[in-house]
Amino acid sequence: MANTPTIPDIVIGRLPIYLRALNHMIQEEKDYTSSHELGERLGISSAQIRKDLSHFGEFGKQGTGYNVRFLYDQIRQILQVDRQWPMAVVGIGDLGRAVANYRGFEPRGFQVACLFDNDADKIREKINDLEVLPMERLSDEIEKRGIQVAMIAVPAEAAQAVADQLVEAGVRAILNYAPISLVVPPNVRVQHIDPAVHLQHMAYYLR
């Protein structure tokens, strides 16, 4: 059930949404669900859900549907979030601080493991028992801890240089909050999060 290059990225992108819905069902103590019920909750067609899941195997039974806990566990394994991935956060401004304080990552497979900034006033400050480290230590710490995931929350003009440093240290997945597109090697995955872009998108529909 391992991820393969033949599976469309848009399918991989929907799996965390299915996982979130299944987690809610577990909290509701539901034992079984169907593609129809999942689709109604998520605004996705039941046919699309069945097609997406079929890339990874057969998880449901005719007339019974999906065992919620089993499907939840299987999708966690597919996404490789049935383990804890240590993460670095670079840039401890308002956004970076909020990310460092957020408690919702660990239940979903990620743990903020180290914080970096180049502001002397922030160095050695502690956030959730993590000390903010200077940028000079970034490469050594990431290599030492085997970190492959990082978040960038620095100003746009600094983001590319930070990304270059992260990639050189061995990071292979970057969540970028800086309002700029990053250039990285093909084997490095970048997700861009720009709230202003999403607000502009929504504003179109306010006419």
Account of the 3D structure:
The protein has 207 residues and is α/β, with parallel strands linked by helices. The chain folds into 2 domains: 9-79, Winged helix-like DNA-binding domain superfamily/Winged helix DNA-binding domain (Arc Repressor Mutant, subunit A, Orthogonal Bundle), CATH 1.10.10; 85-198, Rossmann fold (3-Layer(aba) Sandwich). The chain has helices at residues 9-27, 35-42, 46-54, 68-79, 94-101, 138-145, 156-169, 195-203; strands at 32-33, 60-61, 65-67, 85-90, 110-117, 126-127, 130-134, 149-152, 173-176, 189-192. The strands form 2 sheets. The chain has a 7-stranded mixed sheet, sandwiched between helices. A 3-stranded antiparallel sheet has the order 1-3-2. Strand 8, helix 7 (156-169) and strand 9 form a beta-alpha-beta unit. Helix 2 (35-42) crosses helix 3 (46-54).
For the report, how would you describe the main beta sheet?
A: 7 strands, mixed
**Could you spell the SSE succession in H and E letters?**
HEHHEEHEHEEEHEHEEH
Question: Are there runs of 5+ residues with pLDDT below 50, and where?
Answer: none
Radius of gyration: 19 Å
Task: Give the overall average pLDDT.
Answer: 93
- Please indicate the percent range of residues in DSSP E strands (runs of 2 or more): 15-25%
